[in-house]
Amino acid sequence: MKTVVITGANRGIGFEFTRHYATRGYRVHACCRHPEKASDLAELAVQHAVQVHSLDVNDAQSVKGFAKALAETSIDLLINNAGVYGARVGLGELDYKVWQQVFLTNTLGPIRVTEALLSRLAVPGCKLVFITSKMGSIADNSSGGSYIYRSSKAALNAAVKSLAIDLADRQVIATLLHPGWVQTDMGGPNALISTQESVAQMTQTIDGLTMTHSGGFFNYDGKEIPW
Question: CA angle, corner 127, sides to 121 and 133, nearest 5?
Fold first, then answer.
């Protein structure tokens, strides 16, 4: 039985990832800040091999405690999904405290979790997947704005590229995936695709990942996205 760790697993894309891998027979470690409020996740845990954990990616002690709980666990797949958009404001209205908080969650958080779990991840064939955004692409930015979210994802992309290089000799794959414009609390009801459609294609892409894809930035359907 393979093991997957998923952050931000209580709703949206994270919950759909959890449901998908649980029904495929994976042992799932599903993480969120407030498990006591995650009723859908609790119900899924009763039906499948899902273990729910309290994890705040911004809290060093929370991450350390989670890593300790998985001390004897070998992880085949880590999906760093937890993320926030932040304030939807433009130039002249930027809230720098919010900007810092978004960076903590979207950039530092995924790397903090990965580093804490490194001894359980650094095995040949392990896959590290970071849910990023096309909005983090500098080449693709033709509309401006969204300073906070764009910069947090661009920084994550840069960090994961370095991670892929540093783990290459251990045959660990580190890849960035854009989930598409998805119908979630963040994406809104007018988004183009459902969580089911997004995750179905992302999991196919994940299944096909090899070392040649490590350090790459891909759309949910596997097409490469320019930096």
Answer: 120
Q: What's the CA gap between 67 and 83, in Å, rounded?
A: 19
Domain segments of the chain: what residues? Answer: 3-219
Place of tokens 């994406």: 187
Residue 149: active-site member: yes
CA–CA distances in Å: residue 186 to residues 65, 82, 203 = 28, 12, 21
Per-residue model confidence as pLDDT tens digits over 126-168: 999 999 999 999 999 999 999 999 999 999 999 999 999 999 9
Contact between 174 and 167 (Cβ < 8 Å): yes
Tell me, rounded to whole angstroms, the distance of Cα 107 from its chain centroid: 10
Strands of the sheet containing 50-54, edge to edge, are: 50-54, 27-32, 3-6, 77-80, 127-131, 173-178, 217-219
Domain 3-219 listed as CATH 3.40.50.720: yes
What pTM was computed for the model? Answer: 0.96
Which run of H or E residues covers position 6?
strand 3-6
